Amino acid sequence: MNNENKDFDQHELEKIRMKKMKAIIEAKKRKEATQERIISTSEKIDFVLKVVLAPEAYNHLNSLKVNEPYVYQSIYNELISPDVIQNIDYLLAIIKSRGGTPRKIPLDAIIYLERKAKGIRSKIQVKRGDDMMDLSSFLSKE
What we know:
Largest sheet: 2 strands, antiparallel
Oligomer: single chain
Strand order of the largest sheet: 1-2
Number of helices: 8
Shape: rod-shaped
Radius of gyration: 30 Å
Distance between the termini: 119 Å
Helix content: over 70%
Structural class: mainly alpha
């Protein structure tokens, strides 16, 4: 009888261990599923930028992010308004339903925003003989 009690206790302990292992595995699966569903807002915005920008524009923006964070932040603020952040899930739904965007923002637009953030004004240079002068000086001389 004593041997039967030990076997019974061992069997009950094994059942308890199996229940706990099963609960741990299920909790881990739930946690992974939750993490997959909850993508941070910054990842969503990055995805939208990747879809909306032309590939070379997206690469240029990412290089600015690494090399010139202040310029990147200025461009980011121009492209991503608070309304975009509030409606990011709606934008993602539209992008997924349409399979992307019909037109992409070109590299020129990102370079324009970069120059604007750096305070670089465009200058048109005119060569007259051996002299180089900007267009406004050239036009005012004549």
